[in-house]
Amino acid sequence: MPANVPLTAPQKALHKMGLARDIDLALHLPLRYEDETRITKLRDARDGETVQIEGVVTDSHIAFRPRRQLVVTIDDGSDTCALRFFTFYPSHQKAMAVGNRIVARGEIKGGFLGRQMVHPGFRAAGGELPQALTPVYSTVASLPQTYLRKAVQSGVARADLADTIPPQLSPQLGLQTGWSLREALQFLHHPTPDTSLAALEDRSHPAWQRLKAEELLAQQLSQLQSKRERDALRAPALATNAGGLHEQLLAALPFQLTAAQRRVGEEIARDLAREVPMHRLLQGDVGSGKTVVAALAAAIAIDSGWQCALMAPTEILAEQHFRKLIGWLEPLLSPKGLTVAWLTGGQRKKEREPMLAAVAGGQAALVVGTHAVIQEQVQFQRLALAIIDEQHRFGVAQRLALREKMSDEGREPHLLMMSATPIPRTLAMSYYADLDVSTIDELPPGRTPIVTKVVADSRREEVIERIRSQLAQGRQVYWVCPLIEESEALDLTNATATHEELSAALPGVMVGLLHSRMPPAEKKAVMALFSGGQMGVLVSTTVIEVGVDVPNASLMVIEHAERFGLSQLHQLRGRVGRGAAASACVLLYSAGDNGRLGETARARLKAMAETADGFEIARRDLDIRGPGEFLGARQSGAPLLRFADLATDTHLLQAARELAPLMLDRFPENARRHVDRWLGGKSDYLKA
């Protein structure tokens, strides 16, 4: 379409839905189908069944009880049926005037006043019935189904759907023969009436299998391509020097590393010593000791004469890292004239400027901060390693910006991403296929197991009594209130009300309040009082989700636990059990108006009560939510799987993994066309 021709409302809606190319329209598959291929006689229709009937209008009037409605009676020769419309226009009355013959489709309901349909679809009778099921697509208000159906049909007709998978490789995808991509798409947009609706709905039909296998192959090709492209880039080789900073740090630590920490530390050191950019994910359960592994990696970079940046999603977490790293590294860096710099968005100018100068001049060997680390005015002298903590909390664009900032002398940075949310195997095989994964699979000695209790809000007084007994033993307590994204004011009211309630219930105890809208200095002061032991109870929104380390805290109460995600609950629980005292986590839930918990919330709370194993939690989380939320910000702008399901399509994923290198090596042009068809320009996001 010429650039100067304005778009119509439906065309704008198509673009807004991402349906810009013919292939996008062809891949916009129906949500469900309606069977308009047959007419059912009223005498044969069963109550509760959705049917299509045809008859003559014998009566049409507007009734006013219980509310204004259009009631149309039709007779098909075997019985009569009332059609009720609570929203209607004069055009409806005209189309269904007495004597007109019409076709109506809807759910048949029996009752005292005879059979009826409420708000059925209708049209004038006549013409041939469709030969295939009628597709119903997901759409938006300004895009009627009739327009969308025509647009999709045109898209399928115009799109280049020639098979990109060479015939000699097709059998390796393990698919039934006889379904090309074009045939599969044409069929799924207009299935024949004899097709099993169950096979369409659960996506087990061979046409669906074809699409899912192609989608998974595109994803695997894109990931493999990005891994190979990165392997062709150069990065600074960072050697571990005998007697250097790495060894000095190991000797200075006040604890012994676990076997798992030593193993992953060696994996990272091997990567850093190569001239290929490291792209490694360090995963480990809450409290498994990822920060010290990151510090040892930073020591290798600094000892080789380069800089390292550590970026965390929240100021509290960044500061936690900063304090630990200062304690471990600064005594070793000071004699060399090097420092650790601190950068956050809330810094004052006079605090920030010397930090920026130290980063640009290279004196700041390690830079710790929030997303402020990637702001334009931050210029590194020689940055060789970036460590991103809780990587799923960062947007893809932020990670790409960090990589661009670090490129130096035509070289790429090494990238270490850390996550306390372990990644299930199927996710590692698909969305993280371009990453090397290191796993810390044991906790440091001295961590106490945490007892988890699921308690109804009606027993709140008992929970407060439990707090009193913990405080009497000299322990400290967290009380976490949920963040309600739609309303910051509501979050605040919730947290403030709880703070007042606990302050009144616990006279003589210092009860603190921490939430996202507090100025940074105030947050810092509250955390200092809690960390120092003067504050007995900390009421907080989820700003304490990660990184807060107070070994004396032995009880975590999570209010409205049913509103939290599973990995978030697990993260919060990990704030206790960090010392020698027996620790507990109370999941305080509030049932809905009907007195019952939703199915998903019940599954989450059950999983929390049954296991403290982060890997098992992650597996169940994937089952409950699917990969979308699990991936966090990695998916912003990136193509989540639209058709394949990691829970049920592991065999197709495995086949696609094995086929991708063969196709990339032997048929590179086919591979390029295949990725372009499925991912368009989005494949860059998978490289972040």
CATH architecture of the domain at 245-440: 3-Layer(aba) Sandwich
Helical content (DSSP H or I, runs of 4+): 25-40%
User: How do the strands line up in the largest sheet?
Assistant: 11-12-10-13-14-9-15
Based on secondary structure, the structural category is alpha/beta
The dominant shape is globular
CATH class of the domain at 245-440: Alpha Beta
Give the distance, in angstroms, between the N- and C-terminal Cα atoms. Answer: 34 Å
Whole-angstrom Rg? 31 Å
Low-pLDDT regions: 629-639, 684-688
Protein described:
This protein is an alpha/beta fold and 688 residues long. Among the domains are: 38-124, Beta Barrel (OB fold (Dihydrolipoamide Acetyltransferase, E2P)); 245-440, Rossmann fold (3-Layer(aba) Sandwich), CATH 3.40.50.300; 450-611, P-loop containing nucleotide triphosphate hydrolases (Rossmann fold, 3-Layer(aba) Sandwich), CATH 3.40.50.300. Helices cover 39% and strands 18% of the residues. It is built from 23 helices and 21 strands. A seven-stranded parallel beta sheet has the order 11-12-10-13-14-9-15, with helices on both faces. Strands 6-4-3-2-5-7 form a six-stranded mixed beta sheet, with no helix packed on it. β3 (69-75) and β4 form a beta hairpin. The longest helix has 26 residues, at 206-231. The chain is globular, with a radius of gyration of 31 Å. The model is unreliable at 629-639 and 684-688 (pLDDT under 50).
